[in-house]
Amino acid sequence: MSLEARDVEVWRGRGRVAGPLSLEVKPGEVLAVVGPNGAGKSSLLAALSGELRCKSGDVFLEGRALHQWPLAERAQRLGVLLQESSLGFGFTALEVVVLGRSPHARRGGEESDLAVARAALDATDTQHLASRAYTTLSGGERQRVQLARVLAQLWTPPVHGHRYLLLDEPTASLDLSHQHLVLERARAFAHEGGAVLTVLHDLNLAARYADRIAVLDQGRCVQSGTPTNVLTPDLIANTFGLRVEVVSRPDLPGPLVIPMGRASPPP
Fold first, then answer.
1. Is-contact 164 151, C-beta < 8 A?
2. Is the pTM above the cut of 0.90?
3. Cis (ω within 30 of 0) for the bond into 20?
4. What is the pLDDT of residue 224?
5. Which residue(s) pair with 56 in the sheet?
């Protein structure tokens, strides 16, 4: 069982932004997708979430085409945290998180849904924001509340199958401490049997928390594998235009990437 893109091409307007490419994320692992700006990372995530239909190829959730899943059943298995989530209503942070329980709505379930929402706030270090109006929160606080909403959505495993968490640059607006908190939560989700795909820009965060890394460039997957196998000086120079030193430390789960300056363009 997995969430899998098979030979997908994603177009926006008249231009192809990703593909053809194939990618799979499995329960129990964190897959980090990295690449330069415009590589197609967010477009791939939009295809995997069902937000964008594929021009060719298809996305399969546990062996079944994603668009064939009833929306409520799909939402019980697949949750998405976008880069930005706009909300103009005067909801409190707790009320925003409770929205994540909508796919599980049932008569008499209000108390249990509130308990899940509060647990999700605890997991994202936002419990102290529960009664605050969402519109008054900082960008980083909003991002963590939205993560709590998605975690609340996926809190209860389905009777059959697994849970899949898609994160689009979840650390972009966070301070250093909360960057690690969010990715620690992602690792815990995978340890509990879920699958995580996260788009990241920070290669060191990807090396520390991901089981596998997929590198995208110009809409294609140019390399995929463990952080140690993928994050090499040559690949980083060719893909990101950056000279780096890559070192191993016994106290870290993955390699450490040290920037050394922009790479010289080829003659």
1. no
2. yes
3. yes
4. 95
5. 9
